[in-house]
């Protein structure tokens, strides 16, 4: 990168940062941002990447791992107290978001036949702040699979979620998008108790082997699946420990956060319209209808009997007449 390009990028970073700060100042409270995705999608790494872009310093704000076991098995809230220590006194007052890291959801626990899957139950509990800090989600999922019910408690609940970021790994874009899991995210964010702004991130973009055309197609498919506009989706490679700062990556992340932290995109409590059951039919009217139905049934049965009797009589009359004619013919001859 030449010096002119670097200067231009630094200017863009400053502009993005100023826009983000403007949004953060306009917020009444810091937003609680939930990251949701399947196991290994890179949720925890992306949280570390966002904070690195904000602070210029990498750290294990969210624990990361490798292999086939969960590194995150609980609710972990990472507020600005954990990562925001600016020298500027004015910047200390900025309402930076709290990131909520949870266990990677298993797409196999999402089924199109079941309206209340294990994943949807976990999402609903987290979204509505009905679980305490550090709740063991691995144990929760195990007990929910066994059909156990959670004991109601008002102690130690967490604030509800204000925005959701669906995280998908670019390594999985070659296959089918986990549609049932995406559908559950959509339902929990739009159709239960609240309507919550949803965004998306495709992580590990540096490991994607798709062509630019196919990547753009997959991006559009993912946006359609989640029902978001393309500007609410970020393609990103995560920072690794001891990273070399990437100004262009930071700018993209800051622009993404501008939308996530917009004071105009807020979670809204859905006002469900109350309905009454249809008025019952009065007892007399119901009795009359029953009698009337019985009367019509009786008339139909009697009419059928008469019709059968007429047919029988006609048959025998016809038989008798034939015999009479034969006997008459025989007598004459």
Summary of the model, kept short:
This protein is α/β, with parallel strands linked by helices. The protein has helices at 3-26, 43-55, 80-83, 118-127, 137-145, 179-190, 212-226, 247-260, 283-332; strands at 32-37, 76-78, 98-101, 163-169, 194-195, 198-203, 233-235, 268-269. Strands 2-3-1-4-6-7 form a six-stranded mixed beta sheet, with helices on both faces. Strands 5-8 form a two-stranded antiparallel sheet.
Keywords:
two-stranded antiparallel ribbon; 9 helices; 333 residues
How would you describe what is shown here?
With 333 residues, the protein is an alpha/beta fold. 45% of the residues lie in helices and 10% in strands. The strands form two sheets. Strands 2-3-1-4-6-7 form a six-stranded mixed sheet, with helices on both faces. It has a two-stranded antiparallel ribbon with strand order 5-8. Strand 6, helix 7 and strand 7 form a beta-alpha-beta unit. It is elongated, with a radius of gyration of 35 Å.
List the topology elements.
Layout: H1 3-26, E1 32-37, H2 43-55, E2 76-78, H3 80-83, E3 98-101, H4 118-127, H5 137-145, E4 163-169, H6 179-190, E5 194-195, E6 198-203, H7 212-226, E7 233-235, H8 247-260, E8 268-269, H9 283-332
Parallel strand pairs: 1-3, 1-4, 4-6, 6-7
Antiparallel strand pairs: 2-3, 5-8
Helix pairs in contact: 1-8, 2-8, 4-5, 4-6
């Amino acid at each position: 990168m030449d010096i002119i390009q670097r200067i231009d990028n630094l200017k863009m970073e400053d502009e993005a940062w100023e826009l983000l700060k403007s949004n953060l100042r306009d917020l009444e409270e810091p937003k609680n941002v939930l990251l949701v995705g399947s196991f290994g999608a890179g949720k925890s790494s992306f949280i570390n990447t966002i904070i690195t872009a904000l602070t210029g310093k990498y750290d294990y704000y969210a624990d990361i791992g490798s292999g086939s076991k969960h590194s995150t098995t609980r609710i972990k809230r990472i507020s600005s107290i954990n990562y925001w220590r600016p020298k500027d006194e004015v910047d200390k007052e900025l309402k930076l978001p709290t990131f909520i890291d949870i266990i990677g959801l298993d797409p196999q626990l999402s089924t199109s036949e079941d309206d209340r899957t294990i994943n949807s139950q976990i999402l609903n509990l987290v979204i509505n702040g009905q679980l305490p800090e550090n709740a063991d989600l691995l144990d929760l999922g195990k007990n929910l699979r066994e059909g156990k019910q959670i004991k109601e408690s008002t102690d130690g609940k967490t604030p509800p979620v204000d925005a959701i970021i669906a995280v998908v790994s670019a390594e999985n874009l070659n296959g089918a998008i986990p549609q049932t899991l995406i559908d559950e995210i959509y339902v929990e964010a739009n159709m239960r108790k609240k309507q919550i702004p949803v965004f998306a991130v495709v992580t590990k973009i540096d490991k994607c082997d798709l062509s630019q055309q196919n990547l753009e197609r997959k991006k559009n498919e993912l946006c359609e699946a989640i029902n978001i506009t393309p500007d609410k989706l970020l393609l990103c490679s995560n920072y690794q420990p001891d990273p070399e700062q990437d100004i262009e990556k930071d700018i993209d992340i800051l622009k993404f956060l501008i939308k996530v932290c917009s004071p105009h995109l807020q979670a809204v409590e859905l006002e469900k319209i109350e309905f009454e059951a249809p008025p019952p039919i009065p007892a007399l009217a119901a009795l009359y209808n029953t009698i009337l139905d019985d009367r019509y049934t009786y008339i139909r049965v009697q009419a059928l009997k008469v019709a059968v009797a007429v047919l029988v009589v006609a048959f025998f009359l016809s038989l008798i007449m034939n015999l009479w004619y034969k006997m008459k013919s025989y007598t004459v001859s």
